[in-house]
Specification:
The chain is of the alpha+beta class and 380 residues long. It has 15 helices and 12 strands. The longest helix has 33 residues.
Length: 380
Amino acid sequence: MSIEAFILRNALRNKRRAALSVLSVAVSLFLFVTLLVALREITVPIEDVGSSLRVAVRNKVSIATPLPARQRAVLERIPGVAAVTPFSYFGGLYRNEKFTTFAQFAVDPVAFTNVFLDASLPPEQLAAWMRDRASCIVGVDTMERYGLKLGDPMKLAGTFWACDLDLKIAGVFEGTLDDRSVYFHQKYLDEALNSSVVGTWWVRAESIEHAPAVIDRINRAFANTAAEVRAETERAFQLSFVSMWGNIKILVSSICTVVVFTLLLVSVSTMSMAVRERFRELAVLKALGFQRRDLFGFILAESFGLAMAGALFGAGGAWLFFHTVDIQALSNGIFISFDVTPRILGRAALVAAALGIVSSLPPSLSVARTSVVDGLKTLD
């Protein structure tokens, strides 16, 4: 019998225990990978080609504090600014839902297409949207999810704003990194509120080189005014939302640590039990001339093999599952994508490797301290 066959036979001697060991590692690493991917999707903002040119302008006091509409004229005169659009979050509820997963924003249709260049919309639908102040455009993902079509009404119940919206779908856009949102006329919102205020401004710089200067000029233009602003890049603006969740990174990292530590205790206990049952066999191997390092190698190979098998099923299963499932439907629209990256798979494999090594140490030390005579006295 070869050494490899000997190790495999020992690992599968108790098939039920081996299966449960692999399953415990697989389930734990599946959870580990899921948590890491969720943390990545929450804390790493999505970006596209145009994001490096876009600048978000919000009230310096709070993002919930609106800005006066008269600021637009000042923004458009700032050197390096190519386009400016209001961008007011409505936050309405659709079809009496308790939580609507797609966002709605009031914008200037003409300026919007100049700021968000990645949105693809047929020219005739764009023209129809611009003509009808009570119309809107809807992302293709939302259209498919709710079974909507052009011309359908879209009624939104106000939550943040003291009004409801009665819109009509004039166009369907796609090509952005989040094809779920709804965009409608800022003037329609102004009429519904009987006032003219803006949630935020979105600005497109003429070039990447102009962007830092544009941010500085915008901040200085409204310094010491009644409505001071804070201009920042799109990435910085998105990260400010992440910070509102609190230190979610520490929370998720703590859960991952607990999962790994618990799995380590289970693995050490399982390997110790498996080796304790074979003390007499190991003592015989010692008597036949096998060194301590040889016995340690047998135990390490068995422990490492079971851990890596669990990693294959757990981390590999997570990659396969999240690449085939519709994560938007599964998460009720909370996540747009759920990309299991090679780096996350590498971290899972590293955890499994460390698990296999560490769980082999206690039984190996126990075998090393046991003499041949004491080992032969051990009952199976």
